[in-house]
Amino acid sequence: MLSRRTLIWMWLLAFSICMYELPLARADINDTTADAVLGQPDFTSNMPNYPNDFPTAGNLALSNAAHTAIAPDGRIYVSDADNNRVLSWTSAIGFTNGDPADMVLGQPDFFSNAPNNGGVSAGSFFLPQGLWVDENGNLWVTDAFNSRVLKFDHPPTNDTLADLVIGQPDFTSNSQNLGNGDHGTTVALQDSLQFPGRVLVVGTDVYIADSGNSRVLHYTNPTTNKPFADLVFGQYDDFTCRAKNNNSFCNNGCCASIDNLFNPIGIALDAFGNLYVADWANHRVLRFDDPLSNDTTADAVFGQPDFLSNQFDNGGPSSGLQLPIDLHFDSAGNLYVADSQNHRVLVFFDPLYDQSTPDRVFGQLDSFVSDTENHGLGPFATDADGLNGCTGLAMDKADNLFVFDTNNNRLLRFDEVLQPVAPADFERDGDVDLIDYRRLAVCMTGPAGPPPRPTCLVTDINGNGVVDLPDFAVFQRCMSGDGVLADVNCVN
After folding, report:
1. Exposure letters 265-281 (e unless 16+ CB within 10 A, then b)
2. Are 144 and 131 in contact (CB under 8 A)?
3. Which of 163, 255, 282, 367 maximizes the CB count within 10 A of its CB?
């Protein structure tokens, strides 16, 4: 008598033989044209502090790794870097083109832009970069040139003065690495920072991309000024090292490895707690699986064929990256990458399974081989489809995408970018086809993960922890052409 497992595989084999005769259902991918803009009055303007070259409540002057974040209540914050301020609007989805902000942090009014206006304090900035709003509505800001991260307790209802500082002993200090050096391989510390690029907060876990020290730090529930980090990524577990591409001896190295970083900036966590790092100067994105209980060695790489390579656009723009600077996940687990010097945003539909090639692109008119400013218009002209040096990504609860288009001095909103797909469309390309079947077949009759098989998570359609016959039954209904978009559950 045949075993149940053998019967399953016979059924799958028979099904695969018939697959070539089945109709394929295709979903229409939502467009990559922006729907609204902040910082400019329209989609064709792109000058800093437009129109009169001084700051107002409605314009922006951006540089470096400017960023954006959205609060749980929908309020949006942007780091207006060259104006040394953070602006905020009431509603991320409710603004219209060129709307003025209703709140400013870091300056006494909407018309000032001096760095550390009034002196280094709890209310000043010097080139603010990364932003994050935690689940309680608290705003976190990487104040890059002050080498610190500031936390503001719910600024809309409290005040615009910081309540916590990381990287400095108080709100009036701003020495790089607490005065212990800022060049070469001089000493970093467990409680110091240099030019932080991003901050990410989930529960009591705080991650900071300590970009100038070529490392990512983790803190557990920091509540007092100048807390100590408890994990370091990119420096072989050594908190005193700040080497670029650490050669394992705390010296600057020539080459990338599985354990080092070179001025990382963007950081993100997926739904399973895996850490993703935009290793900016190595032109790659690294994934660290289960970083809090595992190790600080990377487990996957995007943008390079291996962990030792770091050439920009390795393999060409279709598979490579050039100075990737920011990362974000949508609610379906798709990874968005701001590929800054290719002037585009890339989307990887299943980053746990496939790191080789992106599945969608913004900023280049859907071309994966184009890499010019504003899809060929050049640096001085733009439109609703163009990007130039994009540095920041965010999404609201409805999965509308927000892109900080830095060299165009604007923030763009792309409405409803999450492509509706059938649960069996594992590749998220609009087809339930042979590629999806092969993915299912590899995972059938096994655990979904996370470990030991995290790449099978997406094929566990009913979410019961194993990939089994009920999942295959849904796959069959989707493959039979019952309408991927008409009924994404494929239940007809």
Report:
1. bbbbbbeeebbbbbbbb
2. no
3. 282
